[in-house]
Every structure is written in C-alpha cells, then in structure tokens.
Amino acid sequence: MAKVVVVGGGPAGCGAAVAAAKTGADVTLIERTDMLFGGAIRAGRFNYNGEMVGITEWKALGGGEILEALESIVIHHGSIVNEEHTLTYNTTIVEPVVRSVVEKHKVNVLFEARVIDVKKDKESLKSVILADGSEIQGDAFVDATGSSGGVSVCTKYGKGCVMCTYYRCPMFGDRVSIATQAGARSFYRARPDGTPGTVGAAVVLHKGSLSNEIREKLQKDGTMTIPLPKELVDYNKLNLIGATRTREQMEYINLVDIGDTAKCVGLVYLSLEKLRKLPGFEQASIEDPLGGGRYNVIGTIDMCLTDKCAKVEGFRNIFAAGDKAGRSGVALSIMMGYLAGNNAARTAAGEELLVLPRTLVMGDLIQTVAEIMAKENAPPKGYVLGHGVFFEKMKATGLYPQSPEEIRLRVEKEGLADILSRKIC
C-alpha cells in the first residue's frame, strides 16, 4: 500500500492527511504538540469575501469534510469592515471536532512527535527522523510545518516568545521544516524595513473581561466594530502583518465572538494600559497570545517554492501546503492541504498528478502564486481569496460574487466533480 507521511497537524496538515487517506493510501500524520489544527485553533473566521467562492468550489471537487466540520460549529454569520459572508466557528470545541474528522479517515496520528531531520536520495525523500531517534519511512511526504516561530525566530525578528496558546514552542520544541531540512530553497516575506517575517494580526481577549454591553452585542450579532481614538490608529501595523487586511480595518477594534473568547481582528498588539482606557475594555484581559499587549508571533519566515501541483521545487515526492507554501488562512490552508495530500498519494501510487485549471478560482490562485514565486523568488503580497490583489481580480473578472449553483456547474464542466473523493491507491 502506498504510504504518505504528513508533517504538521495544522489546518493544511489535517487537510493533507484526510485527502491522502481518501485515496486509499496509508497515512501517518506527525504533530509536535498534543493538539491538531495549529493556529486555526484561535482563528475562528472563514468564508469571507472570495473565500466563499473557493470553498464552494472545493466542496464540489469533493474536498469538503473539514470545511463542513467547521460549518457544523458556526456560531455567527457576521462580518466586519470590508468583509461579507463571514462565518465564525466556535474555537472552544474546534480541535476535537477536526480531530474526529481525521480519526474517521483512519489516519495514524503521532502526537508530541517532533521531526528534526530527514533522509533522502537525490531528489527523493526516504524518511523523517524524530527527536526520539525513531524513523518514519514513506513513499511521499507533505510538509505542512507552517512558517512561524519557534522561540529563536520570535526572539531574533520580534520581541521574544509571546506565549501563543497553539504553537507552544517552549513546551514542545521549535518547528522544523522537512523541505528545508532536505535542502529546498527557503523564502521569507520581509517587512518594509527589510526585517524577515511578518507579525501576527490578531489578539484574543477573555470575553468575561469585557463590559456587559459588549458581551451582549457580541452574543447577539457576533461582531462589533469600535472606532479607535486617532492617537491609537497605527497604519504601520498594516505593513507589519503583510498587508493582509485593509487600511480601514486599522482604524477600528474589529471584535469577533469566537466562542469563550473574543478576537480583535487586525489589532496586531496593543498595550493593556491603552486598551483599558477604552470604554467597555476597562478590565480587559488578553488570552492569546499572552504577550499580545507588547507584540505578536513572527510568521512567513520559512516558505518553499511549490508548483501548480503543490510539489516542492527540486523534489519528486515532497509536497507542501498552507503557510509553508505561501498560502495562508484557515480555509486556503485546508484546501491547499487537500491538493498536496491528494498529489502525494498520486505520486506514491505512480499516478498522474492533479492540476486544477485556471477556469477555477482555486486553480488560478494556485498557478498564479506559483508563477510569481518562481519569477521573483519571494511570496507575493495580496494573493489570498479574502482581500487584496487576487480578490480584486475575482471581482473584475466576474468570479465574485457567484451563486453556489454557478460555481458547482463550473467544476462539473471541467469534469472534476468529486475528483478529491476518488480512490487511487
């Protein structure tokens, strides 16, 4: 039986593992912490703007299991400034819900297992080596290790470990990329001053530390947009986070109910002293990252070049997805994980790789980013589904908004309906 090894259990890794398992492959998912879903444990939001089109496409392609699991725990249909169609899932229970999907597909999950090295033969990876000395062999591999941290990175390019609730590098060890260890070229996204990496965009607050008025509005509407005093508006933060939001969003506290906590989308960081001077925030307490009053996690520090099949440059059997492949966000990471996992299984089984056509939004995005990275040796800015250059392109070409039926018909016209649900191995 073809064997696929996925390293990293975030949204991309979970997607890759499920997709590979659906082909009939024997799948091992290696996660360095004790939980799945990585940074998406505190994300809470998806389906906004162009993501709605991409997600509908993906379901039609047969890759909807994890996305539908998120939809099953949606607590609000509410959007913030410059967004629409947003769904907010309950982050309090998302990890066990996603874990149940992975387990249902008979994936062998190794928790608290950190990969530290690899064995390869020219352009092929043979196995990965864990910190305890054990070796996991495979026919094909998916690098879903992300592009954030660990402690040394956040110290060198940030202000030290900000104590994330999801990465927890001091407890479980720093992230190690199998593609980078194998010798793949590594790219980073730089800030305007040339400093490598971008800064995490959100701060999560304890909902119980907010005023009754704010909590009641969040409970009712799911979101709340509160203008920041002019002296607290810092447009430089937009560059720190890689321009993944809009300038207008920097002018507000965009508060979103994500379960037991409330997320400040795009706040980046704000000192408790300043935050508590705002009406309703007098007793505010930061839940994640614990150092969010001072700074945030450093990301986009270690990405690799992938082609239109999600295969890593220079290697026959290594694929990458999510932040590691320069495609970030909960939904986009999951979907790219599915493509990487499916093609890893195809490689392991000796089958032709899947290429999504440019007539599909996801196919166009994947191929566009691959071409730009190959040309510029750097990940492009603004190429996500929810905001920026690519979203504007979708609107200009009539691909946003579209009805679910129009989107499904487009997938069927290409002969790709349920392609991600077909047995291969």
Description:
This protein is of the alpha+beta class. It has two domains: 3-191 and 301-421, FAD/NAD(P)-binding domain (3-Layer(bba) Sandwich); 201-296, no CATH class. Helices cover 31% and strands 17% of the residues. The strands form five sheets. The protein has a five-stranded parallel sheet with strand order 6-2-1-10-18, covered by helices on one side. A five-stranded antiparallel sheet has the order 13-14-15-12-16, covered by helices on one side. Strand 7 and strand 8 form a beta hairpin. Helix 1 runs parallel beside helix 11, helix 2 (51-61) packs across helix 14 and helix 3 (65-71) runs antiparallel to helix 4. It is globular, with a radius of gyration of 20 Å. The relative contact order is 0.20. The mean pLDDT is 95.
Shape: globular
- Poorly predicted runs of 5 or more residues: none
Proportion of residues in extended strands? 15-25%
Q: Structural class given helices, strands, pairing?
A: alpha+beta
CATH topology of the largest domain: FAD/NAD(P)-binding domain
CATH superfamily of the largest domain: FAD/NAD(P)-binding domain
What is the second-level CATH architecture of the largest domain?
Answer: 3-Layer(bba) Sandwich
Summed up:
The chain is of the alpha+beta class and 425 residues long. The chain has helices at 11-22, 51-61, 65-71, 94-104, 151-157, 169-172, 178-181, 212-221, 236-240, 272-275, 330-349, 361-376, 388-396, 404-413, and strands at 3-7, 26-30, 45-46, 74-76, 87-89, 108-110, 115-121, 124-130, 135-137, 140-143, 198-199, 203-206, 223-227, 252-257, 261-265, 286-288, 298-299, 318-320.
